[in-house]
């Protein structure tokens, strides 16, 4: 729903036990700042899909790592894992943790335990992203829904 800003000069803002009367211009500035930096609903959907894939990859790699931690991955596995990691990096591109997220090297072929270490960093970064953009009710705060209200 789009609000008709021309209809009034001031707006009553309720916050906690305080009531403030602020100008509509100031309110628009506040709401614009709140939305800046928030992910879109589309990005959250992609995040959710990739989170499931990454957790599945992590579980499989962890099992391999338990059996043969020093055995190198084959090129097929590296290629498939990197397909997921590349998309996760795209989702997290604006996060400070991005500089710590590396792809698996398809030339040297990392060991199972090395792959677990790298994938674990991605999972931690995704957890940080989720915590940053969800409210106390674990609902996503997005451009379309900056407060994370139930829809």
The main sheet orders its strands as 1-2
Order of helices and strands: EEHHHH
Mean pLDDT: 85
Proportion of β residues? 5-15%
Q: Uncertain regions: pLDDT < 50 for 5+ in a row?
A: 1-8, 13-18
Number of strands: 2
Cα-to-Cα separation, first versus last residue? 13 Å
Number of domains: 2
* Helicity level: 40-55%
Radius of gyration: 21 Å
List keywords for this structure.
mainly alpha; disordered N terminus; 151 residues; 2 strands
How would you characterize this protein structure?
With 151 residues, the chain is mainly alpha-helical. It has two domains: 31 residues, no CATH class; 92 residues, no CATH class. A two-stranded antiparallel ribbon has the order 1-2. The two termini are 13 Å apart. The N terminus is likely disordered.
List the helices and strands and how they pair.
Blueprint: E1 10-15, E2 18-23, H1 24-35, H2 41-67, H3 75-91, H4 112-132
Antiparallel strand pairs: 1-2
Helix pairs in contact: 2-3, 2-4
Quick structural overview:
The protein has helices spanning 24-35, 41-67, 75-91, 112-132, and strands at residues 10-15, 18-23. By secondary structure, the chain is mostly helical. The longest helix has 27 residues, at 41-67.
């Amino acid at each position: 729903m789009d609000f008709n800003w021309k209809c009034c000069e001031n707006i009553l803002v309720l916050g906690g036990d305080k009531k403030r009367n602020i100008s509509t211009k100031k309110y628009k500035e506040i709401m614009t700042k709140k939305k800046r930096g928030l992910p879109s609903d589309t990005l959250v959907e992609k995040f959710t899909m990739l989170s499931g894939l990454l957790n599945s990859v992590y579980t499989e790699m962890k099992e391999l790592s338990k059996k043969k931690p020093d055995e190198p991955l084959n090129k097929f596995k590296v290629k498939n894992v990197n397909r997921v990691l590349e998309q996760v990096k795209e989702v997290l591109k604006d996060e400070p943790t991005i500089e710590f997220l590396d792809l698996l090297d398809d030339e040297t072929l990392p060991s199972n335990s090395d792959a677990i270490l790298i994938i674990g960093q991605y999972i931690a970064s995704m957890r940080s992203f989720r915590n940053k953009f969800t409210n106390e009710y674990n609902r996503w705060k997005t451009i379309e829904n900056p407060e994370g209200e139930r829809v």
